[in-house]
Design goal:
The protein is of the alpha/beta class. The protein is built from seven helices and ten strands. The two termini are 23 Å apart.
């Protein structure tokens, strides 16, 4: 089986694949940053909790947007499984074309899996530490990306900069106009960000002159997807599925070179 690891700014998501199916997945906090020994112990304990036999995993693919965590995570996984990990990056060769070389591995994986999975022009809305919208057309050309502060990032900034606002549960309020402080903040975070996403989708469609197929992913995607008809599907595993596809592509390229 293949273990796919996505090292993000807020979370590290793990996915175990049996062929194309992700049969097990879990998330651990990226912060506070941990040493190789701490990561090794935490991975080992997690495996025990989930009943995972390390010997069942024969291949490991790692994608990362946190450079100083990449090495200790890969090293600890190698210790645990006694096999080498394979890192996939923005430079993994695919049929995707882009005018920039600055795209993060996660966004590249999002674009690649959307291109492989869905027809036409697609937008992938990733509700992560940053809110990102990545657009790729039917010819595998990445048309561009939008990056904004993420929902939790904005909420933490709001709480940190005000004297009387505290942390809230992230859920959809019953009304747009809140009565309590919690409801008011929930409305701003949920409906405010939803309106921004809907508006950005409309602007992209107008700029391209066509209607796009929209995929939502990321930690809070499940909260927003049911609230709008502009998001056509929610897939919380979209990014790690993309990393898996990059791994398969990179492995095939290496075999052909060999």
């Amino acid at each position: 089986m293949l273990l796919v690891v996505n090292i993000g700014n807020s979370n590290i998501r793990f996915g175990i694949f049996k062929e194309e199916e992700c049969i097990n997945s879990w998330v651990m906090n990226t912060k506070p940053y941990k040493s190789e020994d701490e990561l090794f112990s935490q991975f080992k304990m997690t495996y025990q909790n989930y009943g995972i036999n390390p010997n069942d995993i024969t291949k490991i693919a790692v994608g990362s947007v946190v450079p100083h965590l990449t090495y200790p995570v890969r090293k600890s996984l190698t210790r645990l499984h006694n096999i080498k990990t394979v890192q996939v990056t923005r430079n993994t060769p695919t049929e995707l074309t882009s005018s920039t070389s600055q795209m993060g591995t996660d966004l590249y994986a999002n674009a690649y899996y959307a291109h492989k999975k869905y027809k036409g022009t697609k937008i992938i809305v990733d509700f992560g530490t940053a809110l990102t919208l990545t657009c790729v057309d039917k010819n595998a050309d990445i048309k561009g990306v939008i990056i904004a502060a993420g929902v939790i990032t904005s909420l933490n900034s709001l709480i940190g900069a005000t004297a009387q606002l505290s942390d809230i549960e992230m859920r959809t309020p019953k009304h747009v106009l809140g009565k309590t402080t919690e409801e008011c903040m929930q409305s701003g975070m949920v409906f405010g960000f939803l309106s921004m996403v809907e508006g950005l989708i409309d602007r992209i469609n107008k700029e391209l002159g066509e209607d796009t197929f929209v995929i939502a992913t990321g930690g809070l995607g499940h909260l927003f997807a049911p609230l709008t008809t502009k998001i056509h599907i929610y897939d919380r595993f979209h990014t790690i599925k993309g990393l898996r596809e990059l791994y398969l592509k990179q492995t095939l390229e290496n075999e052909n070179k060999g």
